[in-house]
Design a protein that fits this description.
Blueprint: H1 3-8, E1 23-27, H2 60-71, E2 77-81, H3 91-99, E3 106-111, H4 118-127, E4 131-135, H5 141-148, H6 154-166, E5 171-177, H7 186-193, E6 199-204, H8 222-232, E7 235-237, E8 248-252, E9 258-262, E10 275-278, E11 283-285, E12 294-295, H9 297-301, H10 306-318, H11 328-334, H12 342-345
Parallel strand pairs: 1-2, 1-10, 2-3, 3-4, 4-5, 5-6, 6-9
Antiparallel strand pairs: 7-8, 8-9, 10-11, 11-12
Helix pairs in contact: 2-3, 3-4
Length: 347
Amino acid sequence: MADQDLRANALQVLDTLERPLRDLRISLTDHCNFRCVYCMPKAVFGTRYRFVGHDGLLTFDEIEQLVRLFVQLGVGKVRLTGGEPLLRPHIEDLIARLVAVPGIDDIALTTNGSLLTPAKAAALRNAGLRRITISLDSLCDTTYQAMNDVGFPVAKVLAAIDTAKAEGLPVKINMVVRRGLNDQDIMPMAEHFRNSGHVLRFIEYMDVGNMNGWQPDDVVPSREIIDRIGGRWPLKALEPSRYGEVASRYAYEDGAGEVGFISSVSQPFCRTCTRARLSPEGMLYTCLFGTVGKDLRSLLRGAAGDDAILALLQKVWGSREDRYSELRSLLRARGTGAKVEMFHIGG
């Protein structure tokens, strides 16, 4: 049976806002070799911070089992995240296993690029990885190293991007923009990746987690970025490629490629969100800004069978009512509790 037929015959679970489940983001580890200021500030996540130990991580067997169940609810796309997912040994073996799951037709990876050697890129591609997203917040070494806070140079990330391209992997570049920190690098980034064949995406700085000191004034709205870029290189809006797409897509009118904008703060897209998130130790979250997850690892390692786990997944998604970005001001004013950190469930 074709993958699209499997999804057509899926249980078609809808949440309380009639949003289907289509995408699963799997964080393979909460470890990261960067200490980005908007994600894992070094003052908090230092040498004494306790990350999930090896025995606490979901095994590849457990991840595959869950993916097979999620497919039955309509999932066709999987993105592997972290932390830094390439810190997880033998990740290509997991990719090969997930590619073989009937109903899965898209496997993607988000990475900081620091560990993307030619050998690793080839292994990922040979295993069946379809595309890759690489984070890069500035072309200025001083700014970039200040943001990753471990002294990692821009040149090595650019080399990783070239490595992925040479291996035939489509590449997207993610730039988180924070006013007063790297917003001066918007135009240099746009210029650099025009005509590159890569899609550069600008992401509004978000209040993910509890530790990054987010303030509304730090946000550079996508509309401002579009106006800056479009004032130099005219842009035209593109139609979404699919339901639930998070980025607003634009093309350069001169044919120099595509650029995207992820506007969770200024233009929330909660109403079409189709994503569930799985943490390294098997907690299921239905929102990037979630506060409480559902423990799936205990079920996997206990007496629960597939039918019981599937019923729970249906129940969790069916009762989902998340729309944090739409209600941000109200929920922040209420102080509704500590949110899960972004490095723990992927961006």
